[in-house]
């Protein structure tokens, strides 16, 4: 999972009850990490993304806030800032320990139809998600920002995956809420099923079509984070985010539509230095190492999307994969 990258914490908070199906997920790096973002599609909902551009002052972020609630849900980041600020984590602007400005970029997805109007995440959601943040296994499925998520005709959710490569550990967390489908409705097989490693999905793929009413809203957005333990610049970090979007395109068809605001953040904790040779080919050596990380970023993000699909449980009247193809789970 993304928490296999040392120093990365994940927490969820959600409300799933009559009138409510929404939530917030935080990916925290309290001690700071180099950050970047890649946004695609025509309907983004984001906050503090311009500061991640390589030419701008701030180099490190303290957390990423992912939330339901459409643009209203951006308020959840206020709670994340409050939690980090209370603990002295952030960009220092004064001599005292508490004089910091936590750097918390955020992105939101559209899940408003799953809750009564006015029921959406606020600052308390972000704060509660931070209180729940931990370095252990990540809860997946209908939790956090994935509580009201829908992917095509099925229930979406939160998924996570990781991989170890020569350059270090690469992890991803995806909140799957796409206009496109993540599974072939003609066979029941996810588009990124071939990315499975060691039977991790734990299912037997079906081979039959499904006929089910569409739950499409045409206003969606898949959001997520990819993290590595390498020491990268902001520009190199952005290459990771770009590659993770490739993983999304493998797992969802179509991806990056005018009705999606697909946004992926990248974090580099800096625990490992990338190899860099001497002489005229030194830069090529570093670029090759970065390319290894980027290739892994695409794979782990695609796997995270499948985990989000398979782990989701039905909510707000939207059927889950396990409801449509129960035989995949041996039932």
UniProtKB/TrEMBL annotation:
The keyword Protease applies. It holds the Pfam family Peptidase_S58. GO terms for molecular function: aminopeptidase activity. InterPro entries: ArgJ-like_dom_sf, Peptidase_S58_DmpA. SUPFAM superfamilies: DmpA/ArgJ-like (SSF56266). Keywords: Aminopeptidase, Hydrolase, Protease. The keyword DNA-binding does not apply. PANTHER family: BLR5678 PROTEIN (PTHR36512:SF3), D-AMINOPEPTIDASE (PTHR36512). Belongs to the peptidase S58 family. This is L-aminopeptidase/D-esterase. It comes from Amycolatopsis sacchari.
